[in-house]
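Re: the request from the purification team.
They wanted to know what the chain is likely to look like in 3D before they choose a buffer screen. I agreed to run a prediction and write the result into the notebook, where they can find it.
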Amino acid sequence: MHTTIFKKGDKVRHRRSPEWGTGVISRTEMLNREGGTDMRLWVRFPSVGEKVLLASIAPLDHVTEGAHAGVDAIDFHSRPTIAEHAQSTGGGWLAEISKKKPEDLMTAVPLEATDPFVPAPRRLANALALYRFDGTGVRLIEWAVAQSGLDDPMTRYNRQELEAQWKRWIFNLDNAVLKILQELRRDQPSIQAALAKAPPLAKKAVPRLLANMK
């Protein structure tokens, strides 16, 4: 079983969950699996904490830092989570951002969907992927975990508060997607390519948003 080689300290991104941000591998373990060699990886992501993943299954990409590394090398998930917000002390950017209300951080759309330095087709794909959260039942809690970085958001917010924050967040996400669609209005192939890989809720949202542009 051929897998990419990872090592402790490597920075990686999960292609199917870009909102997790750039993770750092804290531990690796070689193992034999299905007659071949595989790696078990412990990866700490800024939005969802530590995940234990198999290198042969998880769609992980190395993140290379540097001025000429390209778009994929930039950590566009630099927005701090609620967990980091609560831990901020002293000076620096984290202390500065802590002046914002936690509720504002909960309703913010991740930078990888809004950063103007990310090409518009990539921004659209990243934004549409966020529609995998539908704001109901377990999905509401999954959204709150990804957005806050807290293992149990219910220790900080009650369900009514999370539902209200979700509504603000989905409103902000719709607006972010609308801006990208306006930017790409003459590039229908890019819109259709992003839609082809988007979750069902995104495929419902885009026609509604396109109708608002007419």
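For the purification team: The helical segments are 82-87, 93-97, 102-106, 120-129, 137-148, 159-183, 188-196, 200-212.
Please add any questions underneath this entry.
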